[in-house]
Amino acid sequence: MKLKVLSTVCLLSASVLASAQAPVVELKDPHPTSPEVWDKVTATGFGWGSIDVRYKIDAVPALAKTLSLYGWKGERVNAQAVLVAPEAVESFSFTVSDLKAGKNVIPATAVDGYFETYVMGEITQQGEPDLAADRLVKMSSMAVPAKTVRPVWLTINVPGDAVPGKYKGTLTAKCDGKALTIPLVLEVGKRTLPAPKDWKFHLDLWQNPYAVARYFNVRLWSKEHFDVMRPIMEQLAAAGQKVITASIIQHPWNSQTEDPFESMVGKFKGIDGSWKYDYSVFDKWVEFMMSCGIKEQIDCYSILPWHVTFEYFDEADNYTHSVKMEPGSKEYDDYIYSFLSDFARHLKAKGWFGITCLAMDERPKDLLEHAYAIVYKADKNYRIEGAVNYYGPEVAERMYDISFAFREPLLTPEQLASHHAKGNLVTFYTCCNPERPNTFTNSLPAESAILGWHSASAGYDGYLRWAYNSWVKDPCVDSRFRTWKAGDCYLVYPDGPSVRFQRLMEGIQDYEKVRIVREGLDTKKAALLDAQLQKFLEFDWDTATDADAIKLLNDSKALLRSLEK
Predict the structure, then answer these.
(1) What CATH number does the domain containing 182 carry?
(2) Phi/psi class of residue 102: alpha, beta or left (left: φ > 0; alpha: ψ in -120 to 50)?
(3) In this predicted structure, what is the pLDDT of residue 7?
(4) What is the mean pLDDT of the chain?
(5) 170, β-bridge pairs
(6) What does the alpha-carbon distance between residue 166 and residue 185 come to, in Å, rounded to a whole number?
(7) Hey, is 72 helix, strand or coil?
(8) pLDDT tens for residues 476-506?
(9) Shortest CA distance to 19 belongs to which of 495, 499, 498, 476?
(10) Which residues sit opposite 384 in a β-bridge?
């Protein structure tokens, strides 16, 4: 029953996101295909594509007329179809039928259907601009220019109580009144995937509420702000997100995004020199995120901001000061100790202390040592979280939740086991590197799914990424940014998900399936699974082709399915 409710929430969130839809604007393709490829295309066509392909807007693709999918009960299963238009189509729409297996039905309402729109990204290695079919938009119809293609994306939300079997249905495109229909088969297995809130995968995608306020032009922390954020954050909760991102210091990462993170805690120095703190914004944000379904952990950034500059309002001179305080200095110690002592008191009063982490990411070891001393002086039971890529066990011992760069695990299997034995978490992260695998706008879609498999192969608890929705100036049109690679700043759009985000969820589901299947395997079959997982750790991304990566992913899925029985 819980799984059924979850599917309803997913569909509701998708419809609310669609109501905030931005107009579809697509920039000119900087690398156009020769129009001669269209000479032999005489009629509008519609067929199944591969979810591992980003179809170029003006190239004629090879498509299939049939598609067979497989999924567990409670799983979200993806598919991609493509319309090929040699002549202009003024109105293109599509519908999915009910999927039927005898008397059993998966209703059409369980399928989320999206048009894919083209966003400007870049060819990662060269940095050249390049369009990518990435944004997923719910709308009633689209016009399709002559000699272009239009991909559509389906996500089937298999009900948790679906009866196992082969379900058959159709996907129909309507092009200026003419119907083009292709068959769809979904086999539902006997296994059940838990609801996202019960997934063990520790997903930590940093949220940026300030980007939402700017993009939708609403007053920060107003009712309108929370209203437009809700479907965006419920979408994140439906992916199994575990962590609330809170900024407790002004601009903890300088201004590395279009919308810098402000402090959610006001700091005031009284006329008598005493300190007071205003937690009203912090409390509203945390309570809101919990109401969206994200409630396991609160990560607070950061008592070690990149600029080591701290703000407070001084009542004596009626002025907001911005003061550089080096960790280890008396000024820093006094400022941070007073704040953290009172913060611990407040968190305990709210019942949040046990799920809160003081987050310090990618900071030099000497600064961390100063911070540790103040943290534990303020309250010895504070938890610490951080992403690090410089050092391993000596830092991991101090951290409840630690994340390593993709290429730098920094812990031996024995040290990893020791960390886990204490009930602590270990994840990995990608950011502006590595180039592969990653979740950039133009990344191979399979790379997003492979991230979940990598976490399973390395014995990690999950995945961290620094930007769920730190949108650039015009995210629905151009994903490039002045500092980072295209798409590095966000995984979803203001009005819906991306191909990258859907495939990332696929990989997370696979992680859960690996965990569940492993529990019932005998020694021989467990060895087969471990050998396949080892291939992800040994995979040479510097020399491997995209086809190699896709094959590794699909071979692993096939083996896992064979082991389910």
Answers:
(1) 2.60.40.10
(2) left
(3) 38
(4) 94
(5) 183
(6) 7
(7) strand
(8) 999 999 989 999 999 999 999 999 999 999 9
(9) 495
(10) 358
Q: What is the pLDDT of residues 188-245, one digit of tens each?
A: 999 999 999 999 999 999 999 999 999 999 999 999 999 999 999 999 999 999 999 9
Cβ proximity of 405 and 429 under 8 Å? yes
Token duo for residue 481: 């940014």
pLDDT of residue 10: 43
Return all residues near 373 (Cβ < 8 A) that are at least 6 apart. none
Q: Does 433 fall in a domain?
A: no
Q: 160 CB contacts (<8 Å, ≥6 apart)?
A: 1, 2, 3, 4, 6, 7, 73, 74, 192, 193, 195
Distance (Å, whole) CA 197 – CA 552? 28
* DSSP string for 140-164: S-EEE-TTEEEEEEEEEE--TTPPS
130 within some domain? yes
Exposed e or buried b per residue across 283-294, where buried means at least 16 C-beta atoms within 10 angstroms of its C-beta: eebbebbeebbb
Number of domains in the chain: 1
Q: Among all chains, which residue has been given the structure tokens 């059940």? A: 192
Q: Tell me what percent of the residues of the chain surpass a pLDDT of 90.
A: 87
Longest CA span, the chain: 83
Residues of the domain holding 142: 2-192
Asked if residue 54 belongs to a domain, the reply is: yes
Predicted confidence (pLDDT) at residue 325 exceeds the cutoff of 80:
yes
Q: Is residue 383 part of a domain?
A: no
- Quick one: DSSP state of residue 279? -
Single-letter amino acid, residue 455: S
The residue with tokens 């059924």 is 4
* pLDDT, position 2: 33
For the segment 363-373, what is each residue's pLDDT rounded down to a tens digit? 777 888 889 89
Two tokens, residue 249: 């210091």
